[in-house]
């Protein structure tokens, strides 16, 4: 199992998503993030990945979720999900991701991971969440996502 991070920038009822241009998840809209490197905290990894993927330095991260992902047959990521509404610099496209702002009412779920529509409404409503998701052939097979009072 790999520990990973996922970070979403929010501003004026808009959410920043980024189109993955290469590697795992290519062709899908997602938050920025990736694997936690040795010696990093989850928050440090989220900040580093955001800097690398969209040239933004996020500040005042708020942890909002934990998701244990199984993408069958062989991917297991324990993901620490963050949001922030403060950062330095403007988002820029890189070789890995193309960022774009979306109205929170117009999230492109059909072009995202299939489980996003299960937990994203919790994130958008300011709730904390935790769960396990099993995905096979880009379909959610099982999930235990639920709102929690603390992480």
Explain what you see:
The protein starts with a strand and ends with a strand. The strands form 2 sheets. Strands 1, 2, 3, 5, 6, 8, 9, 10 and 11 form a 9-stranded mixed sheet that branches. A two-stranded antiparallel ribbon has the order 4-7. 15% of the residues lie in helices and 46% in strands. A hairpin with an 8-residue loop joins strand 2 (14-20) and strand 3 (29-30). The chain contains 2 helices and 11 strands, in the order βββαβββββαβββ. It has helices at 42-54, 116-124, and strands at 2-11, 14-20, 29-30, 57-59, 62-71, 75-84, 86-88, 97-103, 128-136, 139-143, 146-148. The protein is globular and about 40 Å long. The protein has 151 residues and is mainly beta. The chain has one domain: Nucleoside Triphosphate Pyrophosphohydrolase (Alpha-Beta Complex), CATH 3.90.79.10.
């Amino acid at each position: 199992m790999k520990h990973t991070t996922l970070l979403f920038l929010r501003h004026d009822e808009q959410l920043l998503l980024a189109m993955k241009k290469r590697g795992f998840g290519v062709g899908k809209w997602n938050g920025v993030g990736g694997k936690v490197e040795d010696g990093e905290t989850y928050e440090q990894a989220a900040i580093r990945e955001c800097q690398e993927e969209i040239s933004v330095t996020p500040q005042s991260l708020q942890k909002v979720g934990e998701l244990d992902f199984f993408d069958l047959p062989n991917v297991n990521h324990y993901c620490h999900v963050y949001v922030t509404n403060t950062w330095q610099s403007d988002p820029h496209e890189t070789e890995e991701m193309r960022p774009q702002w979306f109205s929170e009412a117009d999230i492109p779920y059909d072009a995202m991971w299939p489980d996003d529509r299960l937990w994203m409404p919790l994130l958008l409503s300011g709730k904390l969440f935790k769960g396990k998701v099993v995905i096979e052939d880009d379909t959610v097979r099982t999930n235990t996502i639920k709102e929690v009072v603390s992480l």
